[in-house]
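DM from R.C. (forwarded with permission)

"hey, sorry to bug you on a friday — could you get me a structure for this? deadline for the figure draft is monday and I only need the backbone to look sensible"
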Amino acid sequence: MGIRRALPSDEAAIARICLLTGDHGHDATGVFGDDRAIADVYAIPYLHGPDCVALVWDEGEGAIGYVVGTTDTRAFQRWFVDQWWPSRPPREVQTEADRWLLPSAIDPERMLTDAVAEYPAHLHIDLLPEAQGRGAGRALIETMVEHLARAGAPGVHLVAPKENAAAQAFYPRVGFAPLADDHSSVTFVRRADGD
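My reply, with the result:
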């Protein structure tokens, strides 16, 4: 019970968790024209991409939460646009949510925020409700930050939608500080190297 490295066999569970939390922490089933699209952007690439790590929270019945990330956002972004996204099934805009997700997936600048210079690593974390409020999120974050530090990343960032009030409250509790915000999201940062 607890944290382990993600296995190839966890891909379906990770995609499901991403979908069930993909609407600002709520179920995104039916929000996109293809329910798999959000996981193909925010979760599954980290099982395959450069300098990536994927950890899951498993209480014995399979993954019910995960944290995924990379030590090098710039390299990951290049790989994502050049190799990963072109290898995915073609998708057409069918819903309002597709209008932002699909163009953002092909945007070569999507992940290159101002935070990347000082905080070159980034991560995404999602937990099903049964894993929330019991320390799983904190444990996943701490384990990931330790991994990123051992891999040489001086800092890590993430972007959380303002609409996700639980995420906005959670990240400061696990050592992240807000760096920047816009009309829809906040960029949080944390040193990984302990400085």
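R.C.: lifesaver. The longest helix spans residues 73-87.
me: no worries. The domain at 2-153 is CATH 3.40.630.30 (Aminopeptidase).
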